[in-house]
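Researcher: Let's run the pair from yesterday's discussion. Sequence first, then tokens, for each.
Model: Starting with the first of the pair.
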Amino acid sequence: MSEARIDPAQLSKRAFIYVRQSTQTQVQRNRESTRRQYALADRARSLGWSPDQVEIIDEDLGRSGASSAERTGFARLTAEVALGQAGIVLGLEVSRLARNNADWYRLLDLCGLTDTLIGDADGIYHPRRHNDRLVLGFLCTARHNMPYVGHVVMLGSMRRLPSTRLLFRNYMT
């Protein structure tokens, strides 16, 4: 997960910044998130990519990540990786690049095949390296299970705290 792993072959390709939020409301209300995502272009330049090699893909802003079917930006990103045009793919959180396992693992496989790095605020990962692949798989699995875990925690809290059960019941109806 070290920036030192970036090699000249990867730097000779383009850096793709994938910018997305799930709804137009999020785009309007979470401007800081949008700003931070666009700032990843600066990160790519600091890692060694020249400004003309950095490409921002943002046409999926305001579109759900539940499926890649309606996300032309994600489809374009995947195609660029598959064609060997990408040296790195950067996103604010790697686990949010794709919101379902099929899309995520397809992207990971393509990155591994084409020697493309994946990076976020926490590090740079190489899907060909076993440990990085393990971390990327865990991050995706954890992210995809969060709604279920949150639901289980909420239900457990409701069972343990009778006084809050009424509050949750009233809130949920």
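Model: Moving on to the second of the pair.
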Amino acid sequence: MTSSYQYNGWGDKVQQTVGGQTSTFTLDIGTVLTEVLAVEQGGSTIHMLPGLGEASNGDWRYYHTDPLGSVRLLSNGTGQITNRFSYTPFGAPEAPPTPLPFASFTGEPTEAATGLLYLRARHYHPALGLALFLGLGSASRAQGTALPMNTQVHQKLKGAGLLLALSP
């Protein structure tokens, strides 16, 4: 699976294409750490209240987190629990329900297609225990410059069926 990413001048991910599916992010850059406010994908939009929940088609799903910030439960507007989540110590979902919420392990965004967590300066693959640095500094990320990858990391990614590439 091939993935490509686009970043703004601050190094925040503003668009990604994973397996041919493009997602565009609306960001709040006025906070200490940039927060995603909405994701547009395939004509539909998911709206976010960072740390609280997400809405799709007007239906809100509220996050219930543990002290680490990982989403453990989702509830609907009436307070009924709709999903339960558990994670391995390094963040891989255990028997992940479909779909995972936008924010999952440590409250960070997860790409459903690849299983990667977006940790702003890097992506993290919880099942492999690897942090993937897709650029060095905001200028190179904004320009889409890829860094040479350690051969051991490359082999793990290849074995996991992941091919990461930055958009030109």
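Researcher: Give me one sentence on the second I can quote.
Model: Residues 135-149, 163-168 have pLDDT under 50 and may be disordered.
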